[in-house]
Amino acid sequence: MGLILCLALNSSADLIFTELMYNPKSTPDQDWEFVEVLNNGASGVSLMNWKLDDVANGGTSPATIIGTSFTLAAGGVVVLSSQTLSAFNTHWGTSLNTLNYIAMSSWPTLNNDGDSVRLIDNGDVVQRALAYSNTSPWPSIPTASSSDSSIMFKLDPGSATVSQNDDGANWVKSAVGDGISFASATSPFDIGSPGSVVPEPATAFAGIAALSILLWTCRKRVNQKY
Ligand SMILES: [Ca+2]
Ligand SMILES: [Ca+2]
Ligand SMILES: [Ca+2]
Description:
About 20% of the residues lie in helices and about 25% in strands. The protein is α+β, with helices and mostly antiparallel strands. The chain has one domain: Sandwich (Immunoglobulin-like). The model is unreliable at about 1-10 and about 200-225 (pLDDT under 50). One calcium ion binds next to loops.
């Protein structure tokens, strides 16, 4: 029974990071940072007693225990931040969708010039580690106070691999108008898409193709009629 439970909790989880707000415009910087994680696997993953850290970095390596009962369903997305859910909701406003959210008791400050984020399970196994940078091939986000955007993984999360997730070229800076991102409700207006991931391109392309065929058929019928 114990073994089965361990396997259920600790078998390699297929998790990918889908968004990192490592350099928000709002201050203090680390208070408004967040990370978004997608369960890319076929079964739910319990995050009870997992940790989020930023590895050894500049002498600070806080390990934050996610001491809450939470199972991230297959295909589900969760946002982790140091804010209470209420404060996070107020900050991001009505554009925010219903959110899977975990308010962390402490937070591993995400360095603005690059860092590593790790998800460590309840058996101290690193289930996912991602090293990001603020320079090419990663989206350039300067360390100046003008920074305001998160970066998000731009490939179809449903079929993305971990190595694709690790490649900075597959990330893009969030921008209002990209179809998924929006500005926060409170000044100084951070930009991101907490809780939402990039739509599956295959679905979008299929939709566009279907619409094209429909329009072509309609036009043909109109032309035939007149
Ligand atoms: Ca930061
Ligand atoms: Ca750090
Ligand atoms: Ca997002």
